[in-house]
Structure formats: C-alpha cells, structure tokens
Amino acid sequence: MNGFEESSLIVAAGDLWSQATRAAFLDAIAEGQLPEEAFRRWLAQDYLFAKGLTSFQAVAAAKTPRGSQSLLIQGLVAMDHEMDWFEANATEMRIDLSVEPHRICRRYVDYLIAAAYAQPFEVLLAILFGVEVSYLVAWSRLKPEGPYVQFIERWSNQHFVEYVQGLRDLAEIHPHSNQQQHFNEVLRHERDFWGMTWEG
Predict the structure, then answer these.
(1) What is the topology classification, in CATH, of domain 4-199?
(2) 87-110 pLDDT tens trace
(3) Burial zone of 116 (CB within 10 Å; 0-12 exposed, 13-18 middle, 19+ buried)
(4) Domain segments of the chain: what residues?
(5) Buried b vs exposed e over 74-91: b needs ≥16 C-beta within 10 Å?
(6) Which pTM value belongs to this model?
(7) How many other C-beta atoms are found inside a 10 Å radius of the C-beta of residue 47?
C-alpha cells in the first residue's frame, strides 16, 4: 500500500515482513470472532508498549539533526494524544492499565530503549519507521467496520499514512549500514507481540 512495500528495508526483510503484519488477532477481528479477553490484553499491553515507544521517540528526536527533527517532534505530540486516547478507552471499557507488562512487551520496550541510547540517529529512524509502517499495514488490511472500527481507523487513516511516509523518507535520506539489521529486529518483535495478544 502507498508504495511502502517497495521500500528497500521491507523488500530486504523477506518473510519477516508478512510475519509482522499478519496475525491471528487481526484475522479474528476481520471475522468478527475476536475474544474479549484477547482484546483487553492487547489494549493494556499496547498501552504499556506505547509508553516505552514515547521514551524511545524522545531520545530519537533529541539525537536527530535539527533539519530532520520536525516530523519526530510531531510524532511525540501525537503520542501524547494517543496515550490520552488509550486511557480514555480503558476507563470506558474498565480495562486495568496498571497490569505488569508481558515478558514479550517488556522485551520489545527494553530493545527500543537500549537502541535509543546505543544506536546513531540514522538507525533510530529505521527502527521508528519499522514500528509504524508495520502497524499501519497490519491494521490497513482490515475493513473499517464492526465493533473495533475506531481502532482500525486510528492506524489506517490518511494522516497516519502521511506520517509514516515521512518516516520512510527520513530513513532513506539518512542511510546507515545497520538500518536493515534493526529494521528486521523490529519486525521480529512485532511478530511476537501479535502472537502474545492472541495466545496470552
């Protein structure tokens, strides 16, 4: 979609790409058969992941040269709104967000935070692109309908598409030999995270 799958990072990722963007959890939404337990687990764990991602993005923005910072700063503002959105939905649905992170969620966040401080900004751009483009494509495979329509639309709308396009462009403008390695690592974490939301 939107030329994303022509990205050199996605092409070079091979089968990891489809593993990160297709999941039983999403299939169950499409079929109208998602167990409530799986949805509640996903929302709580995705909220905890988003908290970690916000910290990653803050460090990435700080490391990125001023001429390329604007989009990352916009992304941080969007993450602040997203945290509010998660919290409002959790309150409405009576979902406890104070749960412990699942070991797979914790491992993903730990990876992001370690990379934020250890890797150069060029690699961080590829990591952030990987996180966002895999989520965009995964949710965009679903029709915007049914009881989870607001969640589908949140990660498939045109504004999000344009944001992810901007991240792709930044990663391409600032290449680095380690981008592919870390892009692939993001896809492995995405694959495992989706599996956790379905299997527990």
Answers:
(1) Heme Oxygenase; Chain A (1.20.910)
(2) 999 999 999 999 999 999 999 999
(3) buried
(4) 4-199
(5) ebeeebeebeeebeeebe
(6) 0.97
(7) 21
